[in-house]
Amino acid sequence: MFLVKYKDFILSKFKRTEPVKSIKFQNLIHSNHFAQNLFGQSQHLCTIYDNSAWHSIVLETLDLGLIYRNVDNEFAKDGLEDGDIIYSDYLVKELLRYFKQDFFKWCNKPECDHCGQNTSENMTSMGTQGPNAEESKFNCGTVEVYKCNLCGSVTKFPRYNDPIKLLETRQGRCGEWCNLFTLILKSFGLDARYVWNREDHVWCEYFSPRLNRWVHVDSCEQSFDQPYIYSVNWGKKMSYCIAFGKDGVVDVSKRYILQNRLPRDEIKEEDLKFLCQFITKRLRASLNDDEIYQLACRDEQEEIELITGKVKETETKGNATASKTSNIGRESGSADWKAQRGEDGK
Fold first, then answer.
1. 238 φ, ψ to 5°?
2. Which of 148, 174, 178, 276 is catalytic?
3. Is 289 a catalytic residue?
4. Active site residue 220
5. Active-site entry in 46, 89, 140, 218
6. Known catalytic residue: 174?
7. Which fold has domain 120-161?
8. Fold match between 2-107+173-339 and 120-161?
9. Would the pTM count as exceeding 0.90?
10. Which residue among the candidates 201, 204, 220, 276 is catalytic per the annotation?
11. How far is CA 170 from each of CA 67, 101, 162, 163, 237, rounded to the nearest angstrom?
């Protein structure tokens, strides 16, 4: 009886029409640039990856035989049986390995179009320019231009934001890596969301059925369930970390900013909470009662986790301790680039 009444309370709260909140939302968007930015990102990031045609293209492009063979081998090695809910965790870990080691390439500087492979160290930046008509077709925001010190030719590095185009180019930095990897997770039917950090980094989260919670996933680092790596291992200073998914927008800063906190003065805390809740309610407007209730219960569990800093299960204590003390600094990117960004652990 209590659970029935509680469910009714949650649903009535969600479905309640409150014109005053709509007015507050509009005023906030028009008066606060940070709120406007988050809302703009939500309109893109909360919907773009749920594209069945794109999912088909991804699955046709990746080596599914290799991926599932590796997952099955690891699964069997650990003595697990088919149907175990832990399977998706193994799948995500293999996708991280495959993406970083076999499929995608980090690009500090592009290879010279004329000289060929292994020439990126001979490239000198000449600045940036806007995209041409062809590059614009693939949601390219800017184009980096480089000159080869050996032959003098010019090579362009378009920063594409179209994940399907990235399946073709297979190179980039953290923006391209997270963009495509989020789509890959969704293509395998996994519940995933995109995490944006104001201090210029992005990564993913995946909802683990076994752990019954959101798990940190960073394809650049091949990192699974290590939310501490940014503030602890890299020494990165951060202020805001916001997660964008098809069912909601959440401030997950407390999960990742364990030290080296920067001031949070872009928006009032109560306004940020209101904004995330308002956008989330909009995103769930078409869901049925059971779906709304299940997501609300999941929200409450996550809120408790973020407030207390406690999770049901993470890495084993030994592995977590070793990771925090031995892996200092970011793996991906050149030494100079990491130092400029304050991500080298120094």
1. -140, 160
2. 174
3. no
4. no
5. 218
6. yes
7. N-terminal domain of TfIIb (2.20.25)
8. no
9. yes
10. 201
11. 17, 12, 12, 10, 29
Per-residue pLDDT band for 4 (boundaries 50, 70, 90) equals confident
Joined tokens for residue 75? 């699964």
85 pLDDT tier (thresholds 50, 70, 90): confident
Collapsing DSSP to helix, strand or coil, 87 comes out as helix
Q: For the beta carbon of residue 193, count every other beta carbon within 10 angstroms.
A: 26
Name which of 44, 51, 62, 55 is nearest 170 in CA terms. Answer: 62
The domain locations on the chain are 2-107+173-339, 120-161
Q: Residue 233: its pLDDT value, please?
A: 95
Sign of the dihedral through C-alpha 129, 337, 206, 310: negative
| 319: pLDDT strictly greater than 50 | no
**HSE (side-chain half, CA atoms, 13 Å) at 12:** 6
Closest CA to 96 of 264, 200, 219, 273: 219
Strands (E), the chain: 105-106, 123-129, 140-148, 154-160, 171-172, 192-197, 201-208, 213-218, 223-224, 241-245, 248-251
The CATH code of domain 2-107+173-339 reads: 3.10.620.30
For 176, the token pair is 């391209």
Residue corresponding to tokens 């995946």:
206
Give the residue among 232, 277, 216, 224 at the shortest CA–CA distance from 38: 277
